[in-house]
Amino acid sequence: EVQLVESGGGLVQPGGSLKLSCAASGFTFSNSIMKWFRQAPGKGLEWVSTINRGSTMTAYTDFAKGRFTVSRDNAKNTLYLQMNNLKPEDTAVYYCATDSNIRGQGTQVTVSS
Q1: Distance between CA 1 and CA 90 in Å, rounded?
Q2: Average pLDDT of span 22-42
Q3: Which of 41, 57, 64, 83 is the most buried (most CB within 10 A)?
Q4: What is the pLDDT confidence band of residue 19, given thresholds at 50, 70 and 90?
Q5: Which residues contact 20 (CB under 8 A, 6 or more apart)?
Q6: SS (H, E, C) 14-67
Q7: Which pLDDT score, from 0 to 100, does residue 4 have?
């Protein structure tokens, strides 16, 4: 059974940073393209970033470019999202997902002063 457990969310002031983690199990993590999504209050699910199996290719949505960095550690079966210069509009539940879009339960990120 695929399991994805996100962590690292919390309350941060505008301009601050957070690093999200996603612990994966139940599938061969190193063979899977991985993604991050987010869902803000009252809005739909929004793609944030994708990373390929060997970390040689990454992609970001426009709002994440230059501020967010996706990475992975295949030895630890863990996906990461480093988020810098956070803005109030980044407030959302953040989810990691497999290449077939199976998601975890999410971790709440709140950016507020």
Answers
A1: 31
A2: 97
A3: 83
A4: very high
A5: 6, 7, 8, 9, 36, 80, 81, 83, 94, 96, 107, 109
A6: CCCCEEEEEEEECCCHHHCCEEEEEECCCCCEEEEEEECCCCCCEEECCCCCCC
A7: 98
Confidence of residue 109 (pLDDT cuts 50, 70, 90): very high
Distance between CA atoms of 80 and 56, rounded to whole angstroms? 15
Which class for 40: exposed (0-12), middle (13-18), buried (19 or more C-beta within 10 A)?
Answer: middle
Q: What per-residue confidence (pLDDT) applies to 84?
A: 98
pLDDT > 70: what percent of the chain? 100
Residues 83 and 86: their CA atoms lie apart, in Å, by 7
User: Which SS3 state, helix, strand or coil, does residue 89 take?
Assistant: helix
What single DSSP character describes residue 13?
-
Rounded Cα–Cα distance for residues 59 and 79 (Å)? 14
Q: Parallel, antiparallel, or unpaired for β 78-83 and 107-111? A: unpaired
pLDDT band at 73 (very low <50, low <70, confident <90, very high): very high
β 107-111/10-12 pair status? parallel
